[in-house]
Amino acid sequence: MAARARINAFRARLTASTGKPAIAMAAHNPLSAKLVAQTAGFDAIWASGFELSASYAVPDASILSPNIHLEMTRAMAEVQNLPIIADLDTGYGNAINVAYTVPRYEAAGVSAIVLEDKCFPKDSSLRPGGRQFLVSTEEFQGKIAAAKASCSMLVIARTEALIAGLGQEEALRRALAKQKTPDEILSFCRAWPGSVPLIIVPTSYPQLSFDEIARLTDDKVGLVICGNHAIRAAVSAMQRTFARIIKEDGIAGTESEIAPVSDVFELQGDGAMRELERKFLR
């Protein structure tokens, strides 16, 4: 699907009255993005800054170069056809940085970007006792305006007012110009008077199903982002496998629990390469 068509289709999905929000799954490299695309039911891929930082074993605190995230996101777009939502954190600076950065993501095949109202450098929203400092509403408005003026992608504004402990009134005020319980999030959603759909990342309240989110928020949520489940699943699986190999002094016991090499070949596009070999190698 062409990039513009993918953007339009994703915009239509977010605003469709289906009774259930669109679902985006996190990915941190082309392999995980391809696995998301092969799993029926996901509507988009979340090119997660948290997951990418974790894959490099560094904190999610604006440490990695923006070019690393951009090139990894481009690589995700090249191997599958789901729309990609790029996690741009703070936009890597002020509105000028945003104006220069956003078009590069559109050129990379991205369908939507997310900007949050934290100060640069950011700290992870999931980190206990993290530095949750926000820019002024006016500065954030400038960033969103700069992003919208420089691309045709969907621009998603993410307010961290609840996470920063500023309360629902401030969160609503910022959204219009998270404590970690679902009650405040649900209350915020029901109080939302805007015409655009809301997007939530329910990492801290996983007990809510997607159907419940739609029902309890009066269908105001257009997208739910599973923000870090790919990297967490990968870490858990590797820890179990590595520990078992050491415990059993061999690899035989893990064979039934890990993907066969043939599955990896398929994800690598090995079949397409073999076809090229048959046609062109002499």
TrEMBL record:
<dbReference type="InterPro" id="IPR015813">
    <property type="entry name" value="Pyrv/PenolPyrv_kinase-like_dom"/>
</dbReference>
<comment type="similarity">
    <text>Belongs to the isocitrate lyase/PEP mutase superfamily. PEP mutase family.</text>
</comment>
<protein>
    <recommendedName>
        <fullName>Phosphonopyruvate hydrolase</fullName>
    </recommendedName>
</protein>
<dbReference type="InterPro" id="IPR039556">
    <property type="entry name" value="ICL/PEPM"/>
</dbReference>
<dbReference type="Pfam" id="PF13714">
    <property type="entry name" value="PEP_mutase"/>
</dbReference>
<dbReference type="InterPro" id="IPR040442">
    <property type="entry name" value="Pyrv_kinase-like_dom_sf"/>
</dbReference>
